[in-house]
Amino acid sequence: MKVASWISDFFSLLYPDLCPACGNNRQRGEGEICLYCQDNLPRTNYHLQADNPVEQRFWGKVPVFRATAFFFFRKGSPYQSLLHQLKYKGNCELGRFLGRCAAQDLFASPDFRSVDLLMPVPLHVNKLRKRGYNQSACIAEGLAAVLQKPIDTKSLVRSVENPTQTRKGVYERFRNTEGVFSLIDKQAVASKHILLIDDVLTTGSTLEACVHALREADDVTVSVFVLALA
Ligand SMILES: [Zn+2]
Q1: How far is the CA of 114 from the centre of ligand 1 (A)?
Q2: Which residues constitute the domain of residue 207?
Q3: Same-domain pairing of 48 and 8
Q4: 89 CA distance to ligand 1 centroid (A)?
């Protein structure tokens, strides 16, 4: 897959009109990925399913009202390169595009339509400076364009840069992510329904830590949206 993603990066430099997922030619007006890949995206449709597997990941950990992922992601699938482009290659427009596609689906769910505020999982300020953008904020911008909701990138901050490298194990990792995020403006989220946004859901411990921090505010409801479910 490394070679495949290297080749796809190389070709996207030479031929920017190639689809970043399948590598085929992209027609004008097709969007950031070709229509074939858009149609074949392995959507979860979990926004229409209560108690879905994404929601179950938070059970017994933190209270989450609704949670969903836009599509399933498997190692080696053509869609893996989308996430790579988004996270490491500065393709923020791809994140916005996928966010807009996902929001058109989310619109069918009254639970997701009722969110007040979109909140991308924050990067630590040092990482943001180094990378130059927050990939989750790109997704949030796409969602916001369709859902017509404001984005908050100020109230929640990542105050600890990288806690997971020093210790190992899932339990330790979770313990370790507590206190990683700080809610610096409680008023901004009080009595609101917040949609937390991230690119990929793996262990869920980062999102758990965010929910934990948001609950410092009064009467807050938190839902979760991730682009891809690993
Ligand atoms: Zn394609």
Answers
A1: 33
A2: 42-229
A3: no
A4: 18
Rounded distance from Cα 74 to ligand 1 centre (Å): 16
What are 20-47's pLDDT values in tens digits? 999 898 888 888 999 999 999 999 999 9
| Per-residue 3-state assignment (H helix, E strand, C coil) for 117-174 | EEEECCCEHHHHHHHCCCHHHHHHHHHHHHHCCCECCCCEEECCCCCCCCCCCHHHHH
Residues 108 and 16 in one domain: no
Q: How many domains does the chain have?
A: 2
- What separation in Å is there between the alpha carbon of 84 and the centre of ligand 1? 15
141 and 97 in a common domain: yes
Same-domain pairing of 57 and 113:
yes
pTM for the full model?
0.88
Q: Could you tell me the distance, in angstroms and rounded to a whole number, from the CA of residue 26 to the centre of ligand 1?
A: 7
